[in-house]
Amino acid sequence: NVERSTGIPMPDDEIKVLLVDDDEIDRLAIQRFVQRENLPYRLDIVTSKAAAIERLRNQIYDIAILDYLLPDGTGMEVLAQVGEIPAIFVTGSGDERTAVKALRHGAYDYLIKDPERNYLIVLPATISNVLERKRAERALVESELKHRVLLNSIQTPTLALRQDMTIVYCNDAYAQLVGKQISELEGRNLLELFPKLRSSRTYQAYLK
Fold first, then answer.
1. Are 21 and 48 in contact (CB under 8 A)?
2. Which of 71, 73, 116, 208 has a Cα-to-Cα distance from 49 of 20 to 30 A?
């Protein structure tokens, strides 16, 4: 298998798009729209669930556009296989519930097909927004990893709290001090974990 790239293309780069759609007229409409608007998309088109999953295993893509109804399954089944590749779900008019379900299962956005294919007009903006969101998510993860490394390099037990006393971060030294795993601490309320802290001088001083 080809290792997937972890990078997100910059705006002027060619965007590698996996288009999964078995409707020939819709496929041609998208191809013509991309050519007419001179969009920087390199389309790789497949017409079935099986072909889409095979491409995802062996090719690198920046984004996937998934139609719902396919001859051997649904776009929802393909969505489960996209991994880190952001996906835009496409469904027919009147089937918005399916699109919302796709969002719940990891799609980044959706488009509703209309008879006049006006949905193509918003396709470039939708792709740009999805890629920007993915870029921001990756930057956040990288930032959190850097903070994690820095926090764990501190030998003194250290934790970061929200105003409501929820633990945002804690380091290995703090987890060892209280005899718990970091996963048991982060995201939990400090006072719920350690009720006796309410009567401690440290907590009382914090309230002041």
1. no
2. 116
Which tokens hold the place of 119?
């949905």
Task: Tell me the pairing of strands 15-20 and 159-161.
Answer: unpaired
List, in sequence order, every residue forming a beta bridge with 92; answer none if it has no partner.
113
Contact 99, 54 (CB under 8 A): no
d(C-alpha 207, C-alpha 19), whole Å: 56
> What sections of the chain are H helices per DSSP?
24-36, 49-58, 75-79, 96-104, 123-152, 172-178, 182-185, 190-193, 201-207
pLDDT-derived band at 41, boundaries 50, 70, 90:
very high
Asked whether 88 and 69 are in contact (CB, 8 A), the reply is no
DSSP code string of 16-35: EEEEE---HHHHHHHHHHHH
User: What's the pLDDT score for residue 3?
Assistant: 36
Residue 128 backbone zone (phi > 0: left; psi -120 to 50: alpha; other: beta): alpha
What CA–CA distances, in Å, run from 79 to 11, 35, 55, 115, 188? 24, 26, 13, 25, 32
For residues 75 and 46, the answer to whether their CB atoms sit within 8 Å is no
Nearest CA among 113, 9, 132 for reference residue 61: 9
Positive or negative, the CA dihedral 50, 75, 67, 6 is negative
Indicate yes or no: pTM above 0.85.
no
- 20 pairs with which residues across the strands? 46, 66
180: tokens are: 């718990």
The predicted model gives 136-150 an average pLDDT of 72
% of the chain at pLDDT higher than 90? 44
